């Protein structure tokens, strides 16, 4: 990140970081602050200087990850989920065990090298085939193999009796260098007396490395050695051999083939060069690398972004079969999280909360707790109100009759009532006991009855376009065929489709099946090779491309002064006032300084999706064509989008691998909050709902909707 870094602190124990050998993660007092340098010279001619800003995204949080558990990390866009995963992967968190092997898929791992050339950001040579690249990318397995080959050559294939000594020393030197890197990072992360000790340790490592280098350089001269070094080399050789044998039992190449096939790679694509892969296939290749590596902690940040429905379902099954490593997943796909995660880590108010179960279980538990606490609160308020009235009545009687005993008794009861307000039972359902259930210092004797509140949804409102006559369909395709110039094979064959006002249509299919091509024909960006496309003469279409976020990111990098407000003004050609544009952006959840002060280059993926949605709504369309719009959106933003689309009185055509979105928008399933809205929308306009599968160029209706598509894919897995 340019002009951006992290400040991370934790509650440290007296034990040194290197002594923590546990695979479980239990870090207390985690505070992560994002520090950035802001140039304010353009804002003030007299103050041309750099101003450093710092804001906290985690505050005294507790990070607990148990070995072998599959966790889902959920939270709003921009709340710090990806930052937490990057901090774990880069080992920036003090107290994180150095023995934990981490394999990580980052959300943004593709850098634009040129207009049509995307490369992986790891800096490796990409002239190898995809299959070889995936197999070689297991750094742990490669290191074990390299050390074994070095020792095997020295012990059994060398005439120099000192070769094992030189080999074991070289291995020790490499291990010492890795320890030095960890020590250097520890010295940077620590301060005070611990930082002083860490820097002393770093100097010792530097001295030991110099000694090893001098010994290795003196190999041409007479070398002194001990028999224990040769024995150590032999023992390490046997240990590495046993470890490699256990790895060979897994058949690395077979595992790589299984993963690549499941992610949608054909044999020809596996044997092609990594350089030839497009951005989406690069991400799949990186995902295959991550899944193949031996690790203790697997971090997956939006792994479904570039997968089609087949790859998504396969990945669900594969993650469910993984046993051993701890898995931490960030995903906007609700059904994917439900299928793969055993527990949830909820990022809320800069802290981490934990729940045993998936998202559906969490929502159900939250609803039940909310109802229970609401009832308890009402009962307590009613009881307090009745007793207060009784106290006032008795107090009045006591004053009128000059009964001091009665007055003292009432005041004593009032005090006890205030002391006993709150929870009458602990979290286990037993009667509350102060010395057991509430240790420490508190201002009240009991926990207050708090009714949990729903996280505020981003309010999205889609302004409908002008009413069109119901006589004509909005768009109709008649016997449409399409093939690209120079190709003999048709991508689309005999497509017939009629779209009327209020229709809800979902098009599902594998990547490369032609879904985006079909949407481009519907929107008029492509012309059919044969067949007829008819469109209502006054129809306005709002098209959201699956590459919209990438387009906005490129725009933001080309000019870091462009904000959402400026881009909206440019596209609207000054036909709308600033207040009107702000209102439109507010309708999709973009407000305040994010609109006018934050450059597009610094907006999160979810914010860029909302900006793209606002841009297409400038023309108040009667037909929305949405291509993978939920990519980068968190589950709350998806829920808000679902509610907004449900009351849109125009037609909607969408392609998505998000089954939750399709079920809610097209099939009217799963979303309880939509019941009232759907009842109102049914009375306002008529809708026809269809799910289609695009396969082999043919558009096939699916009477049973999403379930029919999923069942057909699961049978092939």
Written account of the structure:
With 717 residues, the chain is an alpha/beta fold. It folds into 5 domains: 178 residues, 3-Layer(aba) Sandwich (Rossmann fold); 110 residues, no CATH class; 73 residues; 160 residues, P-loop containing nucleotide triphosphate hydrolases (Rossmann fold, 3-Layer(aba) Sandwich); 68 residues, no CATH class. Helix content is 44%, strand content 18%. The protein contains 24 helices and 20 strands. The protein has a 6-stranded mixed sheet, with helices on both faces. Helix 2 packs parallel to helix 9. The longest helix is centred in the middle third of the chain and has 42 residues. The radius of gyration is 31 Å and the shape is flat. About 5% of the residues have low confidence.
Layout of secondary structure:
Blueprint: E1 4-9, E2 25-39, E3 50-65, E4 70-74, H1 81-89, E5 102-105, E6 110-114, E7 117-120, H2 130-136, H3 139-156, H4 163-189, H5 192-217, H6 227-249, H7 252-262, H8 267-270, H9 279-292, E8 297-301, H10 309-321, E9 326-330, H11 334-340, E10 343-348, E11 351-356, H12 359-400, H13 404-419, H14 434-437, E12 475-482, E13 492-499, E14 504-508, H15 515-523, E15 530-535, E16 541-544, H16 548-558, H17 564-572, H18 578-587, H19 593-596, H20 605-616, E17 623-627, H21 635-646, E18 651-655, H22 659-665, H23 675-684, E19 689-695, E20 698-701, H24 706-716
């Amino acid at each position: 990140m340019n002009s951006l870094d992290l400040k991370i602190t934790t509650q440290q124990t007296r034990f040194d970081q290197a002594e923590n050998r546990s695979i479980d993660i239990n870090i207390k007092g985690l505070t992560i602050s994002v520090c950035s340098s802001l140039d304010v010279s353009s804002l003030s001619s007299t103050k041309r200087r750099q101003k450093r800003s710092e804001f906290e995204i985690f505050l005294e949080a507790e990070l607990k990850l148990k070995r072998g558990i599959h966790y889902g990390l959920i939270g709003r866009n921009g709340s710090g989920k990806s930052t937490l995963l990057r901090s774990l992967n880069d080992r920036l968190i003090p107290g994180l065990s150095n023995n934990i092997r981490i394999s990580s898929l980052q959300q943004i791992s593709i850098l634009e090298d040129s207009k049509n050339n995307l490369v992986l950001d790891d800096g490796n040579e990409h002239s190898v085939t995809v299959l070889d690249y995936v197999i070689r990318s297991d750094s742990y397995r490669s290191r074990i193999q390299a050390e074994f080959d070095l020792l095997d050559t020295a012990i059994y294939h060398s005439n120099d009796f000192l070769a094992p000594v030189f080999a074991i020393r070289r291995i020790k030197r490499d291990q010492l260098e890795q320890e030095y890197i960890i020590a250097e990072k520890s010295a940077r992360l620590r301060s005070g007396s611990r930082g002083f000790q860490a820097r002393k340790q770093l100097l010792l490592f530097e001295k030991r490395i110099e000694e090893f280098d001098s010994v290795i350089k003196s190999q041409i001269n007479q070398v002194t050695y001990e028999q224990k070094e040769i024995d150590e080399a032999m023992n390490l050789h046997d240990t590495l051999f046993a470890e490699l044998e256990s790895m060979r039992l897994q058949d690395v190449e077979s595992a790589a083939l299984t993963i690549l096939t499941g992610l949608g790679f054909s044999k020809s694509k596996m044997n092609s060069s990594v350089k030839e892969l497009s951005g989406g296939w690069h991400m799949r290749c990186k995902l295959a690398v991550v899944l193949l590596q031996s690790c203790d902690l697997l971090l997956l940040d939006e792994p479904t972004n570039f997968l089609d429905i087949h790859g998504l379902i396969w990945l669900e099954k594969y993650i469910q079969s993984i046993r051993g490593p701890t898995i931490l997943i960030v995903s906007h796909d609700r059904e994917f999280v439900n299928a793969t995660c055993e527990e949830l880590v909820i990022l809320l108010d800069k802290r981490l909360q934990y729940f045993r179960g998936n998202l559906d279980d969490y929502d159900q538990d939250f609803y039940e707790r909310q109802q229970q606490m609401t009832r308890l609160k009402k009962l307590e308020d009613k009881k307090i109100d009745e007793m207060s009235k009784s106290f006032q009545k008795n107090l009045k009687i006591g004053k009128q009759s000059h009964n001091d005993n009665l007055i003292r008794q009432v005041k004593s009861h009032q005090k006890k009532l205030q002391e006993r307000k709150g929870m009458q039972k602990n979290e286990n359902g037993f009667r509350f006991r102060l010395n057991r259930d509430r240790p420490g210092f508190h201002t009240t004797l009991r926990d207050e009855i708090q009714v949990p509140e729903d996280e505020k949804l981003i309010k999205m409102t889609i302004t409908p376009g002008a009413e069109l006559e119901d006589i004509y369909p909005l768009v109709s395709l008649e016997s449409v065929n399409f093939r690209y110039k120079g190709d003999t094979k048709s991508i689309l064959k005999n497509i017939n489709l009629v779209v009327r006002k209020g229709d809800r249509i979902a098009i599902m299919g594998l990547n490369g099946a032609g879904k985006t091509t079909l949407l481009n024909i519907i929107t008029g960006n492509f012309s059919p090779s044969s067949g007829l496309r008819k469109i209502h003469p006054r129809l306005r279409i709002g098209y959201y491309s699956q590459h919209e976020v990438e387009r906005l990111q490129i725009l933001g990098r080309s000019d870091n002064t462009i904000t959402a407000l400026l881009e909206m003004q440019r596209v609207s050609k000054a036909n709308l006032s600033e207040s009107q544009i702000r209102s439109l952006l507010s309708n999709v959840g973009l407000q305040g300084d994010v609109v006018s002060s934050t450059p597009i280059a610094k907006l999160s993926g979810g914010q860029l999706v909302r900006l793209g949605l606002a841009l297409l709504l400038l023309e108040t369309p009667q037909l929305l064509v949405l291509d993978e719009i939920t990519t980068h959106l968190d589950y709350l933003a998806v829920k808000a989008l679902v509610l907004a689309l449900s009351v849109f009185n125009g037609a909607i055509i969408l392609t998505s691998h998000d089954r939750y979105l399709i079920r809610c928008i097209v099939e009217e399933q799963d979303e309880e909050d939509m019941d009232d809205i759907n009842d109102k929308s049914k009375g306002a306009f008529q809708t026809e709902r269809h799910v289609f599968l695009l396969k082999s160029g043919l558009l096939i209706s699916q009477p049973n909707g999403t379930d029919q598509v999923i069942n057909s894919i699961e049978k092939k897995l």
